[in-house]
Specification:
Blueprint lengths: L1 H29 L5 H17 L3 E3 L1 H4 L9 E5 L5 E5 L12 H10 L3 H12 L4 H8 L8 H15 L3 H13 L3 H13 L6 H7 L6 H10 L6 H9 L6 H10 L10 H11 L6 H9 L5 H11 L3 H13 L3 H13 L4 H11 L5 H10 L3 H14 L5 H4 L9 H11 L4 H11 L2 H10 L5 H11 L4 H10 L10 H10 L4 H13 L12 H9 L3 H12 L22
Parallel strand pairs: 1-3
Antiparallel strand pairs: 2-3
Protein name: HEAT repeat domain-containing protein
Organism: Geobacillus proteiniphilus
InterPro entries: ARM-like (IPR011989), ARM-type_fold (IPR016024)
Length: 563
């Protein structure tokens, strides 16, 4: 008994240490990495020295003697003071930097973290001269995202306290056309918080391929004034760019680097957003503020009268999943009875099983259909198998049958998923619409089950399943096996098209690709139905392209799409 107690105490101690470490990480995330005032003083002194002398040909030892007016030389001015001429071709390399080529290669190819860090330190010792070298050799890091991040980190070390290096970054952002150079400069500018280049990054963010890097860099700047132009850029993201959206949702977790006041801007953007693919960027951004978002969302719930805005605020609040949130929502139920349905939706997002008895009480005692629907949805995430017998009778009520079966499926009722599928493919038009709308809320394992069952369905029923599977923003790649099996059966044209739409929807996803895009291309070439062939071509035409290999010269670019 004593040993068990000691083990439990040790586990609790380690858990407390882990929580303390995570809290420190969150705190450090909200604070600038460096003393900005001290950095600015150093850079200002350097600017004064530059202004006192003549215009400088930056990295002339790398690119040869200055020829003012030569096309490849770009004139770059710093807001702090000083004018410099920069050669962005990076075509030559002085002998003193030749030994560092080996270190660059080590960073690009080695998987030994210690060896890589040692190579980075070697390059760092060369100082600002190494900036041009890094841009020159960036081609080594093509198709190596993690390594490119290391390269940006290295550049940030070289340029943080060096005005010449910062001007170099600005020059690349201002004049370069090489996408790899631009990506590297954007990421570095964010890491060193070079706010002088914010207008340049906002302009570059209009390029769909550069948007994720610009998005992250702008948040790293910790300048809340960028929120409105940034929201405008987010609104322009193509909903077909699955990979860009996935990256943006991850990056949105860093919105908390800005001031909490931007929560209001993000909330308004969410309310105005008509694209369900884009909304998670805003919801993730708001929730990233955690405790700081709670009073703002509670204020919205308290003051708002518009049902949709109240509902969104409740969902966001519940999604923060902190003990204080459960308390606030519980209190709100008593304070705002006219907003009960929305508040219960917020409770659903907490996934807090302690709410199950309260939700059952409201389900059984309230006659309002919307509240019953909200309670059943909430029980799907807050209930346990113990509530299955009490939920089962509500399947007989056709007005809330969809929500009842969704709750039963989510809680593990064995027969519920087959019942759910039955009404999805064979129910009335109203039932099919209701069940289809709930598919995106199901766990991925049920999406897989639906796809498996679809293989043996008649085409009319299979079409309903495939259309419903278009709703989720994520699908497990395992579904691809069943899509291929259905294609092998040579189904009707509508079924084939729906499968192609699913493949294309997730074609540029990093983690949810269902089948290779070659399946669709082969189908286009093989298809004899003119209408189907034309539709496939239109689907492919709408598919976003992305750049591939890029050379080292700003005038030499290779493009390679995702096919």
């Amino acid at each position: 008994m004593f040993n068990i107690l000691e083990v439990l105490q040790e586990k609790n101690r380690k858990r407390a240490q882990e929580l303390e470490r995570l809290a420190e990480e969150v705190t450090s995330l909200r604070q600038p990495k460096y003393d900005e005032q001290q950095i600015e003083e150093i850079l200002t002194k350097q600017a004064q020295q530059l202004s006192e002398g003549e215009d400088i040909d930056l990295f002339s030892d790398i690119s040869g003697p200055e020829v003012v007016g030569e096309e490849r030389k770009k004139r770059v001015t710093s807001n702090r003071g000083g004018v410099m001429y920069i050669d962005l071709s990076f075509s030559s390399l002085p002998s003193k930097l030749q030994p560092l080529l080996k270190e660059i290669e080590i960073i690009a190819k080695s998987d030994d973290e210690r060896v890589v860090q040692k190579a980075m330190k070697q390059i760092e010792q060369a100082g600002v001269d190494a900036v041009g070298l890094i841009f020159r050799e960036v081609r080594m890091f093509y198709r190596k995202p993690a390594k490119r991040a290391l390269l940006a980190e290295l550049l940030s070390r070289l340029t943080l306290l060096n005005l010449k290096g910062r001007i170099m970054i600005k020059g690349v952002l201002e004049h370069a056309t090489n996408r790899q150079h631009l990506e590297l400069a954007i990421r570095t500018a964010g890491l060193i918080q070079e706010r002088e280049v914010i207008p340049l990054i906002l302009k570059l963010a209009e390029d769909p391929e550069l948007f994720p890097y610009c998005f992250e860099a702008l948040l790293e700047m910790r300048d809340s004034s960028i929120i409105q132009p940034l929201i405008q850029l987010i609104q322009r993201v193509d909903p077909a760019r699955t990979e860009t959206i996935e990256k943006s949702i991850q990056i949105a977790r860093r919105f908390s680097l800005l001031k909490p006041a931007v929560i209001y801007d993000l909330f308004e953007a969410l309310i105005a957003c008509n694209l369900r693919q884009i909304r998670p960027i805003y919801t993730t951004g708001i929730r990233s503020f955690k405790h700081e978002a709670i009073p703002i969302l509670m204020e919205i719930i308290r003051k708002e009268t518009d049902p949709y805005r109240i509902r969104r605020a409740c969902q966001l609040l519940g999604g923060i999943r902190k003990p204080i949130v459960a308390q606030k929502l519980n209190e709100a139920l008593g304070q705002f009875p006219e907003k009960k349905a929305a508040i219960i939706e917020g409770i659903a997002h907490t996934r807090d099983q302690s709410f199950a008895p309260l939700l059952l009480a409201h389900l059984q005692g309230d006659k309002n259909k919307k509240i019953k629907e909200a309670c059943l949805k909430a029980l799907a995430s807050c209930g346990t198998k113990d509530q299955i017998p009490q939920i089962r009778p509500y399947v007989k009520d056709d007005s809330i049958r969809a929500e009842a079966l969704y709750a039963l499926v989510s809680l593990g009722d064995r027969q519920a998923m087959d019942e759910f599928l039955h009404f999805l493919v064979r129910g009335s038009a109203q039932e099919q619409h209701a069940f289809s709308g709930l598919v995106s809320l199901l766990n991925e394992k049920y999406h897989l089950y639906m796809a498996e069952k679809m293989v043996n369905m008649e085409d009319r029923e299979a079409l309903m399943v495939l259309a419903a599977l278009q709703k989720p923003n994520r699908l497990t790649p395992k579904i691809g096996v069943y899509l291929q099996k259905k294609l092998d059966q040579q189904p009707s044209a509508p079924v084939r098209l729906e499968i192609y739409r699913l493949i294309i929807k997730f074609a540029n996803s990093t983690s949810n690709k269902l089948l290779p895009l070659s399946v669709v291309y082969e189908a286009k070439n093989r298809e004899t139905d003119i209408a189907v062939k034309r539709e496939i071509e239109q689907l492919l035409d709408r598919l976003p392209k992305r750049f591939g290999g890029v050379g080292t010269s700003e005038h030499h670019m290779e493009t390679d799409d995702i096919f």
